[in-house]
UniProtKB/TrEMBL annotation:
GO MF entry, a single one: transmembrane transporter activity
Primary residence: membrane
Signal sequence, start to end: none
Protein name (record): ABC transporter permease
Subcellular location(s) per record: Cell membrane
InterPro entries, per the entry: ABC_transp_permease
Annotated GO CC locations: plasma membrane
Membrane spanning residue stretches: 22-43, 50-69, 75-93, 100-123, 183-203, 235-254, 266-282, 321-339
Length: 348
């Protein structure tokens, strides 16, 4: 009898642990059910649109996720998106080459990330201050360049980087950004899913991934274990920058332009929100990259719910901000409550 009772506890505890571990899936499903209810049904097209609209922020949020896993933060990703996207348009207009544009976007993004990484990892400056500064720098440089680069290089746009539709590759590039696989799955959404799968593998099945978690859990212990903490902190910012570069490439493929004033605006907040909704702890060392996918899609669906309810657009960010505060509050208060009530049970 006692053995049977003892066996039941681990089973229920295991189920509870699975629910807690993958709670981000349940959160997404609940949010999507609410969206389907207010928008009038579970249409496949609407579901696939979630992947499309989540693609850029989802790719950027992967980079934000690994930065947060090390205990740092990157506030520059939105401005970096505008900066990289603008110059990627210039490269496309000059080369008429989609592969070269992709290569430039990823490398230029990695270079911007390297600047952040060196200042944070090598110089040992706080990531919040560094990326707050580069957020201002990248946005400013993007706007300045758009005003001073010859008009033909920016597609003869007015204060906007615009791909030239006279180029041979223009239609193919735009079709790529707005195309679908088998007429169902958006190409950009599929790229997001593949990138999530790649980084889930990296973070769970490689030594590099284990080092990321080790640095975020306890940097001093990681250093004593032989991990080059400075190099790791630098490298995650480089990777985050490269992912912003990929996001910039997808952005211009979808929109054929980049406005230095508005492209990527508030994307740093959206990326952080995707990371938090996905269950990654801002303190570092805890969470799963898979959660970022569901976090990004959850935030996209929240936006769609607000639109479906025809709420004033001016209140949009207020609602998102409140949701972000609530989720972080749960992250912070949950362990504290567990510890408190756990001690109470032990005393009894």
């Amino acid at each position: 009898m006692k053995d049977a009772a003892a066996n039941k506890k681990p089973a229920s505890a295991g189920l509870l642990n699975i629910v807690k571990t993958y709670s981000f899936v349940l959160v997404f499903l609940v949010i999507y059910i609410v969206y389907a209810s207010v928008s009038g049904g579970f249409a496949l097209g609407a579901a696939m649109n979630v992947f499309r609209h989540s693609a850029v922020i989802g790719v950027i949020a992967i980079g934000m996720g690994i930065v947060c896993l090390t205990g740092d933060i990157d506030l520059s990703v939105g401005s970096m998106l505008a900066f990289v996207a603008g110059f990627s348009v210039v490269v496309f207009n000059q080369t008429n080459s989609i592969p070269l544009t992709l290569l430039f976007a990823v490398l230029f993004g990695a270079l911007c990330g390297l600047i952040n990484g060196v200042l944070v990892g090598i110089v040992q400056m706080p990531s919040f201050i560094v990326t707050l500064a580069t957020m201002l720098i990248y946005r400013s440089l993007s706007q300045y360049a758009c005003q001073h680069i010859p008009a033909e290089l920016i597609g003869n746009g007015s204060s906007v980087f615009r791909m030239s539709n006279a180029l041979d590759s223009y239609q193919a590039f735009y079709a790529f950004g707005n195309g679908k696989v088998a007429g169902i799955m958006p190409v950009v959404g599929l790229i997001m899913v593949l990138m999530v799968a790649l980084f889930v593998y990296i973070c769970t099945s490689t030594k590099f991934g284990k080092k990321i978690y080790a640095v975020g859990s306890n940097a001093r212990a990681a250093h004593l274990a032989g991990i080059n903490v400075s190099a790791m902190r630098t490298l995650v910012f480089v990777i985050a920058g490269a992912l912003v570069g990929l996001g910039a490439f997808l952005w211009i493929a979808m929109n054929a332009s980049a406005d230095p004033a508005t492209t990527g605006k508030s994307y740093e907040m959206y990326a952080i929100a995707a990371v938090v909704l996905g269950g990654i702890a801002m303190s570092g060392g805890k969470g799963r990259i898979l959660g970022v996918l569901f976090g990004a899609m959850s935030y996209t669906v929240i936006d769609k719910i607000i639109i479906a309810l025809k709420m004033d657009s001016l209140i949009n960010d207020t609602i998102k901000g409140v949701i972000l505060i609530v989720v972080i509050l749960i992250q912070v208060a949950g362990p504290q409550l567990k510890a408190r009530f756990g001690k109470s049970k032990v005393v009894k």
